[in-house]
Amino acid sequence: MRFYDLIIKKRDGQELTKKEINFMIKEYCEDRIPDYQMSAMLMAIYFQGMNIDEIKYLTMAMVHSGKIIDLSSIPGIKVDKHSTGGVGDTTTLALAPMVAAAGVPVAKMSGRGLGHTGGTIDKLESIKGFKTELGLNKFINIVKKVGASIISPTSDLAPADKKLYALRDVTGTIDSIPLIVSSIMSKKLAAGADAIVLDVTTGSGAFMKEYKDALKLGKIMVDIGLEFGKETVSVITNMGEPLGFAIGNSLEVKEAIEVLKNRGPEDLRDLCLVLGAYMLELGGAAKNYEEGRKRLEKILKEGTAFSKFKEMVAAQGGNPEIIDKPELLPLAKHCTKIKAVITGYIQKIDSQLIGESAMLLGAGREKKESEIDLSVGIILKKKVGSKVNINEDLAEVYYNDSEKLKEAKNKLLSSFVIGDKKPKKIPLILAAISKEGVKEFR
Amino acid sequence: MRFYDLIIKKRDGQELTKKEINFMIKEYCEDRIPDYQMSAMLMAIYFQGMNIDEIKYLTMAMVHSGKIIDLSSIPGIKVDKHSTGGVGDTTTLALAPMVAAAGVPVAKMSGRGLGHTGGTIDKLESIKGFKTELGLNKFINIVKKVGASIISPTSDLAPADKKLYALRDVTGTIDSIPLIVSSIMSKKLAAGADAIVLDVTTGSGAFMKEYKDALKLGKIMVDIGLEFGKETVSVITNMGEPLGFAIGNSLEVKEAIEVLKNRGPEDLRDLCLVLGAYMLELGGAAKNYEEGRKRLEKILKEGTAFSKFKEMVAAQGGNPEIIDKPELLPLAKHCTKIKAVITGYIQKIDSQLIGESAMLLGAGREKKESEIDLSVGIILKKKVGSKVNINEDLAEVYYNDSEKLKEAKNKLLSSFVIGDKKPKKIPLILAAISKEGVKEFR
User: Fold this and answer.
1) Chain B interface includes A45 (CB < 8 A)
2) Chain A contact for B47, CB < 8 A?
3) Is A187 an active-site residue?
4) Do residues B54 and B21 lie in contact, with contact meaning Cβ atoms separated by under 8 Å?
5) Does the annotation mark B161 as catalytic?
6) Tens digit of pLDDT for each residue in A44-85?
7) Which segments constitute the Pyrimidine nucleoside phosphorylase C-terminal domain (chains A, B) (predicted)?
8) Do A231 and A320 have their domain in common?
9) pLDDT tens-digit profile of A158-180?
10) What total number of domains does chain A contain?
11) Residue A211: exposure state from Cβ atoms within 10 A (0-12, 13-18, ≥19)
12) Bridge partners, residue B410, by sequence
């Protein structure tokens, strides 16, 4: 078999066989297919797509490029969660302890961020002492004892995805449904959970700008999960504006703590309740979504999720005192504000631009090697639909380095669109897809 | 400017600017764009195409990646010729001396072959002593003195094309009209001729399998030539069967000599007359195509083209005696035949399969580094339309090494399709495209 012939086959719109896809992944991982041939293949897949069988074979080949983690020693149905990405998305930090407090074990591997802000792992590292690189045994023991643990992926977790993602990232082949699905699902399946809840974001700050594309992506991921015998739910959510008020690593940790204290921004809290309710349903801790949601509302009210988070922080070497006193989290030295230049209603907050602004402040990585400044970021004072008066604050900017501050502030200011009429607000939760089908919320 | 953004732009079907295309070629040649990004771009161009402006800018950028050869010291209008490739195509060897004999100087750089058989340069090297790597001054002096010279391209002739072609060759991005046009035209324009005649082949042995695609390719090349102020004619020819009877390096030289002796296969002779007639017209040695053709028929009859070829061979260090006695050319040690298994008419001879058969014998290069055996090849005994009886010879196979002989013979046999009815023969010359428009011959 020659990889050249497979490039031509896909380029010409033909279906690749299981054998051919296995060959492709194996040879690429073992450096017998050069990057310049693989990037041509990735671009051909971008244009010609893949059918559900091809996506299944690709996902499977990527799972088996490494080891599948064995979580069977943890009692109960382990439910994993993943988001296709949003700006200011700190859901996992609140969600994991909420779900664990309801008795569903969460053994989660989470990535570092590339782009606007850090990933969950970066955010957790703003808690002093918190270790994200534990051995597999320690990780499993914490889940057994506490109910939740979040660590960095082990190096043998779908290594094919790591290698392919790095190539896609520099060759314009990220936004391809078959490549997104196989990337996400291979990691989730290799991480060993029994069921999966996916947050598929749509809107200006997300991969899938259009609702219909997000729906398609969510549906294929449910199908792929089921193909592998894992019950999967995709929740389609609107990332038309950033989630919550905080964008930036330690700022988002603070906001997650607010949610766990039964406060926090309404949209972030709501998303945690929705995703959590499905996790409880799949994990057998609730009969259905409605029961799961009620259970989690009670948990937040009683503070058990908050205690669970402190327990998890302590078990992973972090200082639990910080969770009680979030003012101990790192905070940038300086703060400045941006103000509205006219009176009106916020029509739109462009997540993409806000993300780029946060990155300019140092909150995200431009390249893999870049250092993140965990203490910087943005706090929104207004959300879409808010009334704002001229000269009223739109956002606070926390910064250490004033070099790119002006550019960051300009981007931030231009992300707010202010108009005369109160806009119709798009709901956060748009649809949920499960084996039963699509349930639209809007 | 980031090359990543240009990949996305082309992927999304947008037009690249002159500045962007210049950046792409310059940075790639200077190794600041890695192959894995360029191959993604090439595949995006394959799918999205390029408009005439983009092709013009790409061609220009590739021309200027090296030096433009200055032929101004040679008196007269220098006319270059190029073929998009066919099996058994030895046209240049006969054509160059024919045109030179009519007083139009031919200063031609020609490539080595990758694929079925060698290129013109390889074929010429089967003439003992013939040197194809002359200095530029010597090359120009031979053209001044003899009227024709054929050498290998100098290393600074459109080096961007060399680098890009090597990448296209292994990434499934050869068959793209903008990439074919810019590759061919950049080399022709850098080679310094005043006018260009192109043989655009179509059929089973050619890049462009379909007549309409060949027509499109021919038209764009004429437009690009005119954009650069070089009058250009594209002749669309049928490569539905191999050209002439000989496939293989020294065998094809012998056949070219036959043409120069006013004999040789009808189709090869006809193609030389047609391409030559246009070269004479563009070179100012004939008022029009018809006059050019008559002039060349006379030249062949009088033997002046034959003498011109001997002069050129001698000037480039080859033994001119060989041209008088072609039996001195290298010939393989063994000969075997393949025979018809039924009686009937030849319906089709698949050029692609014949080419592959010749390559198995050692007549072509599979990889750049492969050695060519100049003495092996195939002589067809029948052409499309011929009557053949059972057990009658279809072809002779000249070979040295019997290792792949069986496979080569099987391919050769399967390339002949024999049927009951005499087939309608497709003419060799299908159309000619010039600044005046398209003239269809069929």
Assistant:
1) no
2) yes
3) yes
4) yes
5) yes
6) 999 999 999 999 999 999 999 999 999 999 999 999 999 987
7) 345-419
8) yes
9) 999 999 999 998 999 998 999 99
10) 3
11) middle
12) none
